[in-house]
Structures are given as C-alpha cells and as structure tokens.
Amino acid sequence: MEGAQAMSPNDDQTSWQEEHANEQDVPGVARVLEQSRRVRADVEGLVSAVFEARSEWESELRERLTQRPYVSLATAAGLGYVLGAGLSPGLIRAAFGLGSRVAFAVMVRRLAAPLTEMVVGRTP
Description:
mainly alpha; 2 domains; 0% strand
C-alpha cells in the first residue's frame, strides 16, 4: 500500500469537521450538531456511572462471598439450574399463574376493605 497514511481517530474527526464546516452555517444542522454533542456527553456520563456502579456491586458481592460462601454457592447453583432450563416451562407457567392470582387477590382485598368500611360503616 504505497502512499497510505495511518490516520488517528482525531484526524478522522477533524477531516469530517472540515468537510462539513460550511453546513454548520445552516441553523438546522447547527442544532443537530449541538444536540449530538450533548447526547455524546450524556452517554459518556452514563458509561462512567455504569462502571462506577459495577465496581461497587462487585465489591459488595466479594464481601458477601467471603462472609457467607455456602449461601453464595447455593444461590449460584439455584440460579444456574433455573436459567439452564432445569425447570419445565409448564411448571414455570403454573407457578407464575398461581403467583399472579394470589397477588390479584391480595390487591382486591386491600382495595375492598376501605370500600366496605365506607359503605357499611364498619371495618371488616
């Protein structure tokens, strides 16, 4: 490859900016470029926050592993079993159906108690 020059990412960005410099005079393009800079800054902030949270989560997990290694191993084995399709889809469907019915019944009872009190004038 004769005459080929290695370009750094900054060179690529600079050439793009030079190529599109006259487009920045158009109000719509200038707004889009400014918005893209804001989005980029927000994404960089989000990435740094995610890395910080991951670091804190890892240190908490290591601490729990050293304090209670058997509980951690049992939890990992249980999650691995469930995620590895150890439970049949029918069993999962039945458990989810039962759980949703129980949750609905509890919710209706909590909503019905104030209504009953209001209509009848006494607590159930």
